[in-house]
User: Fold this.
Amino acid sequence: MLLAGAAAAQERTAGEIMKNVHVLRDVPASEWDETMAFMGNALGVDCRYCHIPDSFEKDDRKAKQTARVMIEMMRDLNRKTFAGRAEITSYGPKIRLLPCAAHSG
Ligand code: HEC
Assistant:
């Protein structure tokens, strides 16, 4: 228990260790790379689309600023419109497909 407690206490958030993080402050530091890779994969781009390599904290790429705005919009929508349910994700709205019987007979 003591060890587990110590490990939990050591887990820091991105807001604590990164230089210029505003909307994703609560992401655990250990999940940061995964979070960035997820965004890149969802959009089919790599890190350089939003960042100058080795200057990840800078806001000089328009795409990074746009991504920040998008993340805020997504959170806002989920909170206000969908009563806190994560209906909108960074890879688009969840779409429920109805079974299509048109070609089955
Ligand atoms: C779609 C745009 C986008 C892509 C692609 C992307 N990032 Fe980011 N990244 C952001 C945004 C937006 C922030 C700031 C988030 C915030 O303010 O909460 C950020 C912040 C960061 C930071 C924090 C820098 C600091 O100290 O403030 C690091 C490190 C980082 N990204 C690394 C990466 C890496 C590595 C990749 C590729 C695997 C990547 N990013 C891909 C948009 C992107």
